[in-house]
Design brief:
The complex is a heterodimer of chains A (475) and B (481). Chain A is built from 15 helices and 16 strands. Chain A has 475 residues and is of the alpha+beta class. Chain B has 481 residues and is an alpha/beta fold. An eleven-stranded mixed beta sheet of chain B has the order 1-3-2-4-6-5-10-11-9-7-8, sandwiched between helices. Classes of the chains: A alpha+beta (475), B alpha/beta (481). Chains A and B meet through loops of A and helix 9 and helix 10 of B.
Chain lengths: 475, 481
């Protein structure tokens, strides 16, 4: 029997607001423990929460970017559970009335564009952080009260790859809108997954498990792959799938049971009595709509139409807002869009991936890249040399024209000079000349290579090709 | 001097006949003299004299001082004061020192109030007799064998015994008005949202409201002037203009329409209580007040609604007291769950545990709709009924408590009997309305309270009527201590 997976994601993103959700403490990350706290975010007796308006703004922005409808009358709710990092032993969140609902994101699968539904987005507070040191546990409440949005998808994904693509696209949108800085290693973007399997073609859902602790796109994909296989094997062995929460263990490459459904909490949700209803009007929502930046899908469409980029290139360049901005800057300076795109898709992304860096971290500017390209176009340097100059530019941030000048990399286009080198190489390689005469055309390639090497790569390659052939025929 | 009103002390201070320091010292002496008997205080601040001296300095420098400046007062021990303990009369908070001031404390300090101590109460404000305090039994100054009422028993007894010129309490289901009634003082619960709850340790957030205990109605107006108003730290506080409530004193009552809800004068109300109220109501007719019988049948459900809503909220509000971050932690424990269980089992008293269990049950999945949600619906019906009543009348009069002060232990073993003490006050909290209890007379030498309920934010109208009754009765009650 063939199985298919059914996957839904729950994503928590920390909002980039300056202050916390219910008090004026800063949200800054990485400060000394318990220095960004007050009676409110410490949950001291008598302290009361007051909703930070910009949290609502950010959440609406996320909702609009994810094509959600914004609910004009909502309220906060308490989720009751005992945990040492929750200073009130309840979390202020939203339950029956999320701020945003019924949205979607489109992803490009091999079968074409697929729409993944967003069930809801709600706002809530983050908890503190427990640190375990030997016998004792310490709690840092700097994170307590940092605003979060929880984004819950519909169970629309059918493979780990789709889940990953969705999550990547979501991250890109949150970055575009500057709703969250999405730093997974700092925990400002976290993802849990609900996954079940069922016979292909079935419309009923199987028993699902919830997977936690996936800290990267790769981890998400790997954990889902593991879990789907585990569930399919279990069913094939006649076992029942149990509804439970499992944790992804990166080192072991396995999902491990955390708690079963029987141990699940009854959160006893009820409306937060310390707060009033949150009422929004059209003006508020439209005001935020006006601040929306161009989103990846719109940008991509424009790059294809306006710049004639292939869909594949447009897709990759628009994944990152900064990369897209870099590309557009370069185009505006006057470069050929397709050539710039080729450079970005090739050298730029290769080196960034190798070094695990992002475009915003590089030393050179879009202007430098345009200059480099124009050096090639004018024939001052060859493509091969340009790639070397690019590495130098990447390392030092130096102007490419300067690099070419300082290192004497200007292309040799003097026919006489190149012919001299060709003849010298032919003299040194009689065997190759003999091979050529015996009909082995491969020898040409070898000689061209030797000439380029002798010119330290500076000789104009087209001229080298032409002159090698001419001189060979003369011999 | 101990039985003067705050406004009389204010006048003496302004006329420089006494200094704030002298008044404060006298008050501290009075506390020493009688509090062994009354037990109103959990802690007395001897250093209060310092803040009194500050006021005297300001007066000496010719600065304008506010009405409450230099007048000794005390605060129910569920309102946070910076650098002072806030115990809620619970073992679990026995060692908790607040690092911040409640908004009301901030406002009182701005007004120059001299805070002389923390007052006893039922643990976490749950109770009607102050017997649920983990620390001491506050006595009724009129009869030391009897309870002062609760939960703000210490606040009521202190004012009645001349141990403070006014005090603050909190009222969730009658916790200001009922003890005021039993101790023969004025107790005012403002409209929900009138006074910031920031810094009041929450029992039931949607019902709690801070208010004053005073010797007379004029003092209540002065204290309300100081503490009412929107607070950006409390989203449930109302952005409603705060008038000078003293302008509502000495008003003509001619043509004022007062409703007497028949359900509040029926079964369960002691005859002695009814008799005193009838006398007061008769006087009102002479003042030109139009008296009208009304009916509030939904009120009979208020107590049930109250115990579901208040306990549900309390079960969540009190979750933070777990021995982890502050408060008392159990000594021996195996793991974190054991730490929770032991700290809370040892730290909370029986009544608090009862309410936490009740509330936890009412909010549990599968029961939520039948209890919590239904209670919210009935709450709306109660609100609508009051709104409708206020289309016909300006104010409503009822007994505050169905009986006068009862003896220690009389109701302590029967929670339901105890809960009925609040039968006349609870509907007001459910509706969020303002109400006062003022002394109406004595029955068997024990004070009887009269409750006046007003429409939303009509504290002024309540003050006018209360002041009129107070003048007409001119009781001037004093206990024999």
């Amino acid at each position: 029997m063939d199985f298919e997976a059914v996957i839904g994601l729950e994503i928590h993103a920390e909002l980039s607001t300056k202050s916390k959700i219910f008090c004026s403490c800063t949200t800054e990350f990485g400060k000394d423990a318990n220095t960004h706290c007050c009676p409110v975010c410490l949950g001291l007796p008598g302290a009361l929460p007051v909703l930070n308006k910009s949290v609502v703004d950010y959440a609406i922005k996320a909702g609009l970017a994810l094509n959600c409808s914004i609910n004009k009358e909502t309220y906060m709710a308490r989720k009751n559970y005992f945990y040492p990092d929750a200073p009130k032993n309840y979390q202020i969140t939203q339950h029956e009335t999320p701020l945003c609902s019924e949205g979607y994101i489109e992803i490009e699968t091999e079968e074409g564009v697929k729409r993944i539904g967003i069930q809801r987005i709600h706002i809530e507070e983050d908890a503190g952080k427990a640190l375990h040191e030997g016998e004792s546990s310490l709690i840092d409440f700097n994170r307590s009260g940092v605003p979060l949005i929880e984004i819950v998808t519909k169970p629309d994904m059918r493979s780990p790859k789709e889940a990953r693509m969705f999550f990547e696209k979501l991250r890109s949108i949150l970055l575009y809108t500057e709703v969250s800085d999405c730093k997974m290693q700092e925990g400002s973007l976290r993802c849990d997954a609900n996954v079940s399997v069922r016979p292909k073609g079935s419309t009923e859902f199987g028993v699902k498990t919830e997977i936690k602790n996936m800290n990267s796109f790769k981890a998400l994909e790997k954990a889902l792959e593991y879990e789907i296989e585990r569930q399919i094997n279990a069913i094939k062995n006649g076992e029942r799938i149990v509804q439970e929460t499992r944790r992804w263990d990166e080192a072991k490459g396995q999902t491990i049971v955390m708690r079963s459904k029987e141990e699940a909490h009854d959160y006893r949700y009820f409306p937060e009595p310390d707060m009033v209803y949150l009422k929004l009007n059209d003006e508020w929502i439209e005001g935020i709509r006006k601040t929306m930046p161009e989103l990846p899908d719109e940008k991509k469409k424009r790059y294809i139409e306006e710049f004639g980029l292939p869909e594949y290139d447009a897709n990759i360049i628009t994944t990152s807002k900064e990369l897209a901005a870099f590309f557009e800057e370069a185009v505006n300076i006057g470069g050929n869009p397709k050539t710039i795109s080729n450079w970005i898709m090739g050298e730029v992304l290769r080196i960034l991936n190798d070094r695990e860096m992002e475009i915003k971290d590089v030393k050179f500017t879009s202007k430098d890249l345009v200059k480099l390209i124009s050096l090639v176009e004018k024939g001052t340097i060859s493509n091969t040399i340009a790639k070397k100059v690019f590495v130098e530019m990447f390392e030092t941030g130096k102007d490419p024209e300067k690099i070419v000048e300082e290192k004497g990399l200007v292309q040799i286009t003097d026919e006489g000079a190149i012919r001299d080198i060709v003849n010298k190489v032919l003299d040194e390689n009689p065997q190759s000349v003999a091979d050529f005469k015996n009909g082995k055309t491969k020898a040409v390639g070898f000689i061209v290579g030797q000439v380029m090497k002798a010119s330290k790569g500076k000789a104009n390659p087209q001229m080298v090709n032409k002159l090698v052939e001419e001189e060979l025929l003369k011999r | 001097m101990h039985y003067l009103s705050a406004h009389e002390i204010r006048d003496l201070i302004r006329k420089k006949e006494v200094t704030a320091e002298e008044v404060t010292i006298k008050t501290l002496e009075r506390i020493k003299e009688v509090d062994d008997k009354v037990n109103a205080y959990l802690e007395v601040f001897e250093d209060a004299v310092d803040s009194a001296k500050e006021i005297d300095k300001k007066i000496a420098q010719g600065e304008d001082i506010k009405d409450l400046a230099g007048i000794p007062m005390a605060i129910k021990d569920n309102i946070c004061m910076k650098g002072r303990k806030t115990t809620c009369a619970s073992k679990i908070l026995e060692n908790f020192v607040s690092p911040y001031d409640a908004t009301v404390v901030e406002r009182l300090k701005e007004n120059g109030a001299v805070i002389v101590g923390r007052l006893n109460m039922d643990e976490f404000a749950m109770g009607s007799s102050t017997e649920n305090s983990a620390f001491k039994k506050t006595k009724n100054p009129y009869d030391l064998e009897r309870v002062p009422g609760g939960s703000s028993g210490g606040s009521a007894a202190a004012v009645a015994a001349g141990e403070a010129y006014y005090t603050l309490g909190s009222d969730t289901g009658g916790s200001i008005r009922q003890p005021a009634s039993l101790c023969g003082v004025v107790g005012f619960k403002p409209t929900y949202g009138r006074v910031s709850r920031y810094g009041l340790v929450a029992f039931a957030s949607s019902l709690d409201q801070i208010g004053p205990f005073t010797r007379d109605v004029e003092d209540a107006a002065l204290v309300l002037n100081a503490i009412c108003g929107k607070d950006s730290k409390d989203s449930t506080s109302a952005d409603v203009n705060v008038e000078d409530f003293t302008t509502y004193l000495n008003k003509s009552l001619k043509g004022v329409k007062v409703g007497l809800p028949k359900e509040y004068f029926g079964e369960g109300i002691d005859d002695g209580v009814k008799k005193e109220l009838e006398k007061a109501i008769a006087l009102l007719k002479d003042l030109g007040v139009e008296i009208k019988e009304i009916s509030l049948p939904m009120s009979q459900y208020a107590l049930a609604v109250y115990y579901i809503l208040s306990s549900s909220e309390a079960s969540s509000n009190l979750a933070r007291f777990d021995g982890i971050r502050y408060g008392v932690r159990a000594k021996d424990f195996e793991d974190v769950v054991d730490l929770y269980v032991k700290s809370r089992s040892q730290g909370f008293g029986n009544e608090v545990k009862r309410r936490i269990m009740l509330g936890t049950y009412a909010l549990s999945s599968g029961y939520y709709d039948a209890y919590y949600k239904k209670a919210l619906k009935v709450k709306t019906l109660i609100i609508n009924e009051f709104k409708k009543a206020f289309e016909d009348v300006n104010l409503i009069i009822s007994p505050t408590s169905p009986s006068v002060a009862f003896k220690f232990g009389e109701k302590a073993d029967d929670p339901l009997k105890m809960y009925l003490s609040d039968i006349c006050t609870v509907p007001v909290n459910i509706a969020g309305l303002p109400a006062v209890s003022i002394p109406a007379g004595l029955s068997d030498n024990l004070p009887v309270g009269l409750q006046i309920i007003g429409n939303y934010f009509k504290e002024g109208e309540i003050i006018s009527l209360a002041h009129g009754i107070e003048k007409a009765l001119s009781l001037n009650l004093r206990p024999n201590l």
